[in-house]
Amino acid sequence: MVAVFNKELLSWYLITLKLRETLESAVPTSSAGAPMLEFPEQPQQEQEKQQQTPSDSLQIVIEGDGENHEDEETRSPDFDWVVSIKKKIEQAGQEDEAGSWSKLSIYRVPHYLREVDDKAYVPQIISLGPYHHGKKRLRQMDQHKWRCLHHVLKRTNQDIKLYLDTVREIEEKARSCYEGPINLSSNEFVEMMVLDGCFMLELFRGVAEGFKKLGYPRNDPVFAMRGSMHSIQRDMIMLENQIPLFVLDRLLGLQFNNSDQKGLLAQLALIFFDPLMPTDEPLTKSDRNRLESSLGRAATFDPLSDQGGLHCLDVFRKKSPALRA
Asked: Would you say the C-alpha torsion 37, 39, 40, 42 has a positive or negative sign?
């Protein structure tokens, strides 16, 4: 049998056989001998990468979630407000631990009381302490304060530096008695305490011992028990017009060259304020005689020994049953 082939068709047939042999020799066979064709892995790897990419990016976001949340909180409009509140709470705790409230004893009159009758709570003649210090209408008494201090130093033959140094030692303690910040320098505050304190002590001693004995003339405009004395006494029992008793006690100790004048200051204060006491229980004649007889020597009779005292108003209140009620 003779087969006639097309030359061109035969050529393509031979080429196809040759390609097949080449491919079969390069492709591994299975255990069954059938050729195993492996498709390129690149598309599968790319697919796996694409599947992994979202989880990787998600993991990055999760890891940075805390920082992003913190940044958002920091940028929150309420962030600064909350921080300021925390600082105020912390400051209040520090002040409470420092015991500043326990030292406070001379308060300011609340504004709602002033609105009713301001004159009832404001000194009319003299300022004592820092609250009304330097007010124009009260400066007229300043010249009498300086005159009083001159009398004290002349009578005791002491130097003013002794008084200034003594008060400076207790300046911080004295400042803590007053409510709110005191806008006076250290020198101004100490000067005020010495000047006002000595003035008060001269009034106390003048009423108890006699102003003439202290060196004041009979017609003195202030220290003569005339005219303005009652108004001065009234100003001295106003809440905002007080000086701590321990300051007065130290100044009195200097005048007597004795730092241990137990009860003497309270005695002098009670005698001075006796005319203002309610009539239902004034200072008894016996008590007054005992008070006056103990002046000028070591004091042993202290009518407030079991009560103590913060300032003149406190002494007046504790002695007065009407005010105690």
From this structure: negative
Q: How far apart are CA 30 and CA 250, in angstroms?
A: 115
Report for 27-36, 115-124, 236-245: range of highest mean pLDDT: 236-245
Whether the pLDDT of residue 280 is over 70: the answer is: no
In Å, how far from its chain's centre is CA 192? 23
pTM above 0.90, yes or no: no
Non-local (6+) Cβ contacts of 238 within 8 A are: 121, 122, 123, 313
* pLDDT range class, residue 324, cuts 50, 70, 90: very low
Within a domain: 269: yes
Question: Is 85 part of any domain?
Answer: no
Count up the domains in the chain and report the number. 1
Amino acid identity, position 253: G
Backbone angles phi, psi at 46, to 5 degrees: -60, -40
**CB count, 10 Å around CB of 193?**
29
Closest CA to 200 of 135, 273, 260: 273
Amino acid identity, position 58 = L
pLDDT digits 0-9 by tens, 181-218: 899 999 999 999 999 999 999 999 999 999 999 999 98
User: How far apart (Å, rounded) are the C-alpha atoms in residues 270 and 303?
Assistant: 9
Residue 121 lies in a domain: yes
Q: DSSP 3-state assignment of 106?
A: strand
Is 120 domain-assigned? yes
How many Å apart are CA 63 and CA 42, to the nearest integer? 31
